[in-house]
Specification:
Elements (H helix, E strand, L loop, with lengths): L2 E4 L5 E4 L3 E5 L17 E9 L4 E7 L3 E8 L1 E6 L4 E5 L2 E6 L4 E7 L5 E8 L9 E6 L10 E5 L7 E2 L5 E7 L4 E4 L6 E9 L1 E4 L2 E4 L3 E4 L5 E5 L3 E9 L6
Parallel strand pairs: 13-14
Antiparallel strand pairs: 1-20, 2-3, 3-4, 4-11, 5-10, 6-9, 6-11, 7-8, 7-10, 9-12, 13-15, 15-22, 16-21, 17-20, 17-22, 18-19, 18-21
Length: about 240
């Protein structure tokens, strides 16, 4: 079967007072042997961080980290001297490479909501990288806009993996194509908001569909919907 549907209610949960997290894959204290990763995609954390709170300086190594801010603003600092405020509609990228320390905090004015995504790189080591970019003015109506990719297409942020993350805002009743993928790649769709139908599967807000064949499919919006599409290699990551 090429389709696997995971409902939002099946995700891992962590509540820390200042941090409210939902995990698609095993992370921190949440461990589910059936939900470790999807190919090169290791983490999708759906986080809300309370105003003024956040993650203090901590290390990462050999991981591509993408933050998609959907509400509020996130303040970033790292051991490479980078500092940025990532606002709703903006994307942050950090390649941990040979090693980097970083901190992430909500600004003092309001809580921040974001998706934190980890992708295994296709090369180990190297110098850490940082980038952030606004996609607020890109027209996402009934079409995919590429946020990150391995080749920088459509002015997307370049990451160290033959993978991409795209977003679409689909109007009620509209249909868009989920494009086919190359051999040994898989697709994961995460419904940010709304309700859609794919191959007779109904997905609501925060539901997730994994597709492991290479075929083209249609996505039909039953309400105005916002959707993330991941295209990742399914082979094992670097050991």
């Amino acid at each position: 079967m090429s389709f696997t549907l995971h409902h939002a209610s099946e995700r891992g949960v962590a509540e820390h007072g200042w941090l409210h997290s939902r995990f698609s894959f095993s992370f921190a204290e949440y461990h589910n042997p059936k939900r470790m990763e999807f190919g090169a995609l290791r983490v999708i954390n759906d986080d809300i961080v309370e105003a003024g709170k956040g993650f203090g300086m901590h290390p990462h190594q050999n991981m591509e980290i993408v933050s998609i801010v959907t509400k509020g603003a996130l303040e970033h600092r790292d051991s490479e001297g980078n500092h940025g405020i990532i606002k709703a509609g903006e994307i942050q990228y950090m390649s941990a490479a040979s090693g980097v320390y970083h901190s992430e905090h909500a600004t003092k004015d309001e809580s921040v909501a974001l998706f934190q995504i980890w992708i295994h790189p296709n090369q180990k080591g190297g110098s850490p990288l940082y980038d952030q970019r606004s996609f607020i003015h890109h027209d996402k109506t009934n079409k995919w806009v590429t946020l990150v990719s391995g080749d920088g297409r459509e002015d997307s942020i370049v990451i160290k993996q033959d993978a991409s993350i795209s977003v679409a805002e689909v109007e009620d009743g509209a249909t868009i194509t989920i494009p086919p993928v190359t051999k040994d790649h898989g697709r994961l769709l995460l419904i940010i908001e709304g309700k859609v139908e794919i191959n007779e599967q109904i997905l609501d807000s925060r539901d997730e569909l994994q597709i492991t064949d290479e075929e083209e499919y249609a996505l039909i919006a039953h309400t105005a919907s916002k959707v993330l599409l991941f295209d990742v290699p399914m082979h094992s990551h670097l050991s």
